[in-house]
Structures are given as structure tokens and as C-alpha cells.
Amino acid sequence: MRHLEVAAGGRQTAVSGRAAASLGVEGFGLSRGGTARERNEDSMLVGGGAGGAHFAVADGMGGHAAGEVASRIAVEALATLPAAGSLATAVRMANGRIFEAQDGKKEGGDLSGMGTTVVALRFSRTETGLAAEVAHVGDSRAYLFRDGLLLPLTEDHSFVNALLKGGIIDREEASRHPRRNILNRALGTGDARPDLAHFEALPGDRVLLCSDGLYEAVSE
After folding, report:
1. Number of domains in the chain
2. What pTM was estimated for this model as a whole?
């Protein structure tokens, strides 16, 4: 039997092995710290939650205080999501917990202004097969690799992507735009509405969850 595979990038150095064995899903995670900052602000969840069927990548917002704390709060909220709960609810809960952590410090303290992106994936068994649900806020992405094609499952919540969708700039200009790291949505900020996507998972599918540390470094 061919398994469905999920790859994620986050704070841990490496995580591998079967996740959600009863669903036929294997999960793998890998992260490398970049050269711009001393700390790796990414966090990831590989096969956590109810039945080990939850996966997530959260990228703490660079240039903000305690981005690594915000990303950890996000994946912890997703890890505790019950089977009957929705990913959108978990994302909103994570956003609330980040605001609570911010308020726990005096203005200008270590946690003031922290934020994070998040992209999350959950599998569930249905009468006809295996359903997959994706939720994301910010510019961390999900891709589905099927039949030799890499299919994007998310759209960046970013200033540059809005220009791209509006036809103001093209993809080449977007790749080098000086404001390409400006986000329109993120956890811990004013707008944390998650976008949702659903698809039927098939044997042999591979799903990739990643931060901009991957897709800005390598082409599709």
C-alpha cells in the first residue's frame, strides 16, 4: 500500500516517522536556521492532535519581538484541537492566546508586538476515503504534489501578492519587490482570518507545508 506523505518545515532540527498510521499517512519535518538571525523563529507540528492527523508550520514574524514564542503558541493550539473541532477555530484560538501573551507583558516588553504566520493541515476518514482540510494565515504555504504536478493550495496574504493578483506587477517583479515580506494578515495582528481549502487525499499524494525560508530559496 502506498502511503500519503506530508512534509513540514519548522523549528525542530528533524522529525520523521509514521503519523496517523491508521489513516496511512506518514509525516516528516525538517528545519534549518537561516543566516539573518541568531534564533530560528519557526515551529512545526508533525502528526500531532487527535489521531496524529494534524500538521502545521508557523513562521514567527521577523523583526518582531519573540516571534519564536508566537509560532510555538500557534502550533500548540493546533496540537490540542479535538477531532470535532475545526481548524479555523484552532487558528482563532491561537490568535487569542498570542494576544493574551502580549498583554501579559508591559508595553515594550519581550513579547510585545510578536506575531506569526501559520499553515495547518488535518486529515479525517470519511465514508468514501480520506478528507484533507487546510487553513492558513500569512505567507506560509501548502502544496499538493500529485501525478507529477505541484499544485498550490494556499494564496499568500501579503502586500506583493495583492499587487500580483491585481495585475499591477508580474511574478518576476514580485520575486524581487522590496516590500515582498509585508503581510496583510498574521496571528497577533489586527487581521487573522484564516482561509480554508479542502481536497480528497489519494494514495501516493505528497503534501508540503513550508515557510518562505524554503520557497524564496528554491524554485518550484
Report:
1. 1
2. 0.86
Q: Is residue 169 part of a domain?
A: no
Angle at Cα 73 formed by Cα 70 and Cα 75, nearest 5°? 110
Determine the average pLDDT of the residues in 106-120. 76
* 173 found inside a domain: no
SS3 165: helix
Q: What pLDDT is attached to residue 147?
A: 95
For residues 102 and 112, is the Cβ–Cβ distance under 8 A?
Answer: yes
Give residue for cell 513550508: 210
pLDDT digits (tens, 9 = 90+) for 7-58: 666 544 555 555 666 788 888 898 876 666 666 788 999 988 777 789 999 9
Which string of b and e fits 180-209 if b means at least 16 CB within 10 Å?
A: beebbbbbbbeebebbebebebeeebbbbb
CA-angle at 213, arms to 138 and 133, nearest 5° = 45
- Nearest residue to 11 (alpha-carbon basis) of 38, 46, 42, 37: 42
CATH assignment of the domain containing 30: 3.60.40.10
C-alpha cell read off for 164: 500580483
Q: Is residue 178 part of a domain?
A: no
Q: Which pLDDT value is given to residue 123?
A: 92
As to burial, measured by CB atoms within 10 angstroms (0-12 exposed, 13-18 middle, 19+ buried), residue 5 is middle
